[in-house]
Predict the structure.
Amino acid sequence: MTHPSFTRRGFLGSLGFGSLALDSLAAGSGEGASATSAGTALRPNVSDFPPDFQWGVATSAFQIEGAASDDGRKPSVWDTFSRVDGRVKGGDTGDVACDHYRRFAGDVKLMADLGVKHYRFSISWPRIVPDGRGAVNDKGIDFYKRLVDTLRDHGIRPHATLFHWDSPQALEDRYGSWRSREMAKDFADYCSAVVSRLGDRITDWMTINEIFCFTYMGYGVGGTPQHAPGTVVKRKKEVQQTVHHALLAHGLGCQAIRAASPVPCKVALVVNCDTYVPVIETPGNIAAAKKAFLAEEHNGTVLVPALTGEYGPGVLETLGSEAPEIAARDMEIIGQPLDVLGINLYTGQYTRAAENSRGYEILGMPESYPKMQMPWLNLVPESMYWAIRLIGEAIGKKDLPLVISENGCASDDQVSSGGEVVDLDRVLYLRSYLRQASRAVAEGYPLKGYFQWSLLDNFEWSYGYARRFGMVHVDFATQKRTPKQSFEWYRQVIREGRVL
């Protein structure tokens, strides 16, 4: 691992001064004169990214496409869930969303104007295989062919996620979707169907997005879960079984993608791992963050087994009788090698060393701690750096290429009388987090790309249209798109390859 040397130029760069400001501050000094005469700085500005860094944006099918019953698409569990009174704020559904199904050409033009060369989107399982298994819907395939061809015409590389929570309602009706092992096999068959038909156009595949959110948050004991399918079960073991089946689906999906692709491709998993930030960067607190990263249940039951083929240390013992049933060879299938790991990163928790059985404690956030417009979205920029670092140092995957597959925030955006959306809080958020990403790059960690969430305001799951994550404002009554201040800021970041 390489670490930056802290010259005066490097120190000032770490505080966020741009290169021109650094040259001005260094004027007349030997360091400044030698750097200027050589035409390059002694070390890159800490806010610099390499020329081949992948700048992108991300969306998901259910949140933007709409056209919920067009051209052969059948309902997903989210279509059903959103129609139950009280499940989604305002009674909102994804029936229309951003009408991206019809307006995708204009949305791709927005991406081109933004300057991104990479676009992460998801493919709708019930649009491709409406009954979840069996016949493939050619009209669904044709839509994604048109989308991908339009992206490629604008020099934008597609990164396709095969599952972003919108599982077919037909499989929920047939066998309870993720409660059954059959779901893993049906997912692999769906992967084969998509990749065999689109693999000549797409070479970057992501199997599953955020296993935690459609298992732990889709199934629960007691009260109704926040996410679809919203199934109440009798015991925690049943929830853990859905997690295991999703991991198995990921492993079988990896195998299916590689077998079906007509050309060499890359396969990734997307996780929203829990990130633990040492409250002070001392050796003891850093060691505590590493312990927490492995031992806490979410990472230990999703991230660790996906990367190592084994559940996290002590996790199954802690679960005891609530641990999932694991069949022979399951863990071998789950631990498929990855070409890339996608990290969806929004927030984190502060951790410190403690004299207890775990060796660490997780600090609670005070009421006054700053947060964005979601109850869980505390402003913890350092989580960006520590998620990247801990993948290597806690799990041992030091050479695994990483991308930030989602990062962004909800903001109370308002359109001014002049038609502007000046979302300064989102600019503050993105700037703070990207500076931590640049720290990881400067220290030699294998971060290869960044996908901002999201291009468009969209259907924000149980919050409906009441929360906005986009860099482009969407008037959902008219479908008018208005780029926000954050759009212009991110465009300049991409142009200059550094945090501004």
